[in-house]
Design goal:
- This protein is α/β, with parallel strands linked by helices.
- It has eight helices and six strands; from the N terminus they run H-H-E-H-E-H-H-E-E-H-E-H-E-H.
- The radius of gyration is 17 Å and the shape is globular.
Length: 238
């Protein structure tokens, strides 16, 4: 990532001052130094803004807040909770699929690529958009948070109501800190889908049907939460 790295065009007005200013310069200097020191960073630089590229600001209907990218080889692809096709489905995503089946009757996908959701207006946004291999939260406090907070503020200030899926205390505290308007937007709070907490209220929370009902009542259509089959060229690791 360099100072010339472009933001996706629809996000430029809201994020540009941060991205091209001191916050972005400091963040890119940190990442460059880490890479120069031989550290492996996920996802690749070309995918760190994938959530913004796949979901233009005017098209955002749903926001799913994650914490930071997966830190294993080949997993992170720039979308919260999503992994590249061919990767083993992580436990939290497997639980998301279980709740999706319970809520809407959709069978679990055989892969973990959620880009089909992103292309329908589901912003799969991690709070931090990079991580060092095998070191979760290693890039917290380096500048990403200011940029992703600005993303959420931009969505919340937009003309149309959106649904925010706040899974776990981290996402819920972020929403509270940013003062999201729960009168205009739908804020669905539930425990994180991780194996440690999913049975304490995530299962049975019905976020997908509630989201679609809210969107439809506000004239914003619905999300097709079903996922297409994995591409034939990708091995499946279930």
């Amino acid at each position: 990532m360099t100072s010339a790295d472009p933001l996706p065009a629809s996000w430029e007005p809201d994020l540009g001052p941060l991205w091209h200013g001191e916050t972005g310069k400091s963040l890119r200097a940190f990442l460059a130094a880490e890479e120069a020191a031989g550290k492996v960073i996920y996802p690749p630089a070309s995918q760190r803004l994938a959530a913004l590229a796949l979901t233009p600001l005017p098209e955002v209907r749903v926001v799913v807040l994650g914490q930071d990218p997966y830190h294993g080889a080949g997993q992170a692809q720039g979308l919260a909770f999503s992994v590249a096709q061919g990767c083993k489905i992580p436990p939290s995503l497997r639980n998301i699929y279980k709740e999706l089946q319970s809520d809407l009757g959709l069978p679990p996908a055989t892969h973990g690529d959620l880009s089909a959701w992103a292309s329908q207006g589901v912003l799969l946004l991690n709070n931090v958009l990079s991580v060092e291999q095998a070191k979760p939260a290693s890039h917290a406090g380096k500048g990403w948070e200011a940029i992703t907070d600005a993303c959420i503020r931009a969505v919340a200030a937009g003309p149309a109501p959106c649904a925010f899926l706040l899974w776990g205390s981290h996402a819920q505290k972020q929403a509270d800190r940013l003062g999201l308007d729960k009168g205009r937007h739908l804020l669905l709070r539930a425990p994180h889908p991780s194996p440690l907490s999913a049975y304490h209220g995530f299962f049975g929370s019905k976020p997908f049907s509630q989201t679609n009902a809210f969107l439809q009542s506000n004239g914003r259509g619905t999300i097709d939460w079903g996922l297409p089959p994995a591409s034939g060229s990708q091995p499946l690791l279930i």
